[in-house]
Design brief:
The complex is a heterotrimer of chains A (about 160), B (about 170) and C (about 375).
Chain A (H helix, E strand, L loop, with lengths): L2 H12 L21 E3 L2 H4 L3 E4 L5 H10 L2 E11 L4 E10 L5 E9 L4 E3 L8 H12 L2 E3 L25
Parallel strand pairs in A: 2-5, 6-7
Antiparallel strand pairs in A: 1-2, 3-4, 4-5
Chain B lengths: L14 H12 L11 H10 L22 E5 L7 H10 L5 E5 H6 L23 E3 L6 H16 L11
Parallel strand pairs in B: 1-2, 2-3
Chain C lengths: L1 E2 L2 E2 L5 E5 L11 E7 L2 E8 L7 H7 L6 H4 L7 H16 L5 H29 L4 H21 L8 E2 L2 E2 L5 H26 L2 H7 L7 H7 L4 H4 L7 H4 L20 H25 L19 E9 L2 E9 L5 E7 L1 H7 L1 H4 L5 H10 L4 H5 L1
Antiparallel strand pairs in C: 1-2, 3-4, 4-5, 6-7, 8-9, 9-10
Classes of the chains: A alpha/beta (about 160), B mainly alpha (about 170), C alpha+beta (about 375).
The structure holds iron/sulfur cluster.
Amino acid sequence: MTIQDLTTRLGEIAQGGATPPVTPTEGQPAAPVAPVLETDHAKRGTDLDVTVQPDRIQDAARIMDQGGYTLEAITGVDWIADKQYEVVYDFTSFASGKRVAVRTRVPRDIPALPSIHAIFPGANWHERETHDFFGIKFSGHPQLTPLLLPEDATFHPLRKDFGT
Amino acid sequence: MDEQTQVPPGLIHFAAMDQILDLARANSLWPMTFGLACCAIEMMATGAARFDMARFGCEVFRPSPRQSDVMIVCGTINKKMAPAVVTLYDQMPEPKWVIAMGNCAISGGPFVFPGQYNVVEGVDKLFPVDVYIPGCPPRPEALIEGFLELEKKLTGKRRWPVAKAQ
Amino acid sequence: MSIEGQTIHRETFVVNLGPQHPATHGVLRIKLTMDGEYIDDAEPVIGYGHRMHEKMGENRTYAKFLPNTARMDYVAAMFNTHGYVCAVERLAGITVPERAEYIRVVTAELNRLASHLLWAGAFLIDLGGFTPLLYTFDDREHILDLLESVTGARLTFCYYRFGGVCNDVDDQFVAGTREFIARLRSRMPMYHALITKNIIFRKRCEGIGIIPAETCRRYGATGPVVRGSGIAYDVRKAEPYSAYPQLNFNIPVYPEADCMARYLVRMDEMMESMRIIEQALDLMQPGPVMAEKVPKMLKPPKGDCYFNVESARGSFGVRAISDGTDKAYRLKLRSPCFSNMSLFQECSRGMLLADALALLGSLDLVIPDMDR
Ligand code: SF4
């Protein structure tokens, strides 16, 4: 699937609207950005930056899977000032070397979103790691137990309010 | 104890025996194959062709704690690993010695910062250590020097002259 | 299961492999459910080498985090530093002088050679052969000497800086590198005679530990693992960075997807690395090795970016998010070993335990890199 195809297909599911407060892009943190953004690979490292609602994340993963992409990483970010967690899924294509970032945001007090491990089994560990670090619950995940932290860990160290 | 059963002093000497045993032990230290992190690579390098720990009789790396008498703690111990390290130490037969190789094993090294949540700050919090080798990672020469120090601790003599500063 | 009315009970038992086991290369634990000698399920339990790198990225300045990068994948430390400095350079918009790019390529490829040599020795130990380790470490020491002369460290190099490298290389390094390449080239036939043609080695690797290409994709495996499964994916070609676009090299690919294929990929990669180094040394022109006007206290503008490099184990990625201060707001370190390891559970099902260890060795894991 080319970037154009992905733009259209991801655009359809991103129509639900981007979650209002948006990642600070090039100096304008408050301005809302389009849900699907073609980015300059040389500047951002991605070719496409997509923001979807948390409940559409599985659809987005399915599109990426059909496009022959692979899941490279899942990054959690704690935007404590916005009272939200952001989860960034980085996809890349072995064939074209293109890179797509799919973002979603969940409220900080009910951090839950669907798991995509059924589509990308590699997501299993990435989601467990994100759960370790931020306490984000991935619903439908088969084994959301600590992966990197000790088995009995109950803390989430990468939360910005950890240790305070 | 009456007069009859008392052993007259000076009849049995353990000291000479001990000295011989110490010499034997010091010259055949068997370390445990046990890599924790970066420092383990330098430990491997020490055992391999160029630095050749075999020259000092301590190249027989044993994978089982039951067969080894030196534990080289080479790397970072975190809270998940700590119970396993203690188990390994307990499984080693006496007499046993511990070398803390690298800053991580000495004090937590570069991973200590206010609010750190996962690193054990020094292996001596878990069990006693005989020789500390600073460095991040220590060079293979430093590990060899550490073994010479351990030998000295066992026999009271240093078998190798100390290199003079150039 | 039943045969002629009799019920045969299948009994499984659970064995722990690790966290201290010579075959797990450090502190990996695998919870094995065994059916006799066959693996029913192998669940990796990781985290025994977790050292909080991502947390440290958030509470120290950009420059102070540099030494940490060398301690993630310490067998190939250059690549992690490379990925990190490139990500921050992209974020802050710093351009690197050309000579520095070539120096980065030369030192990184030397490190790749060192890493693959170490892997070959350690892999053979997993399979029961001790001798090759002594040969590979002998060659590796030459590389470490070369790198030590410019970086000052044998293992945990912290050589790259934002905007270049901290030291220029001298003629002695260049001459020494050329000499070393000639030596390693002449020793490759010896390695092939010693290892590749060894019948025991072949029997333990050929057809063992198949990782289908589709599995690689679904798990996000990269590096020699995918190239051993017939996918020609290499970040150096897919998203060219540094001085790689100017250099001419091939990506070795083997379609067999077994341990042997992964071994051969790495051996061929060493030949390619040597070619890259020679070309880079030829193309290197005198000039500055540091960009001008890189502030001491770097404060990249708000924003986030991703940068990938091809490390010795696969694609190492950094996602750096800046909030405009001197510390990163979030630093995600994507390690290749993490994804490469996650496919082990699926691929080892039904294998003999001894074969699974060959598979484990062929993935080339560095545990503290996986756990970060
Ligand atoms: S002391 Fe340094 S080299 Fe050794 S394990 Fe710790 S971080 Fe790694």
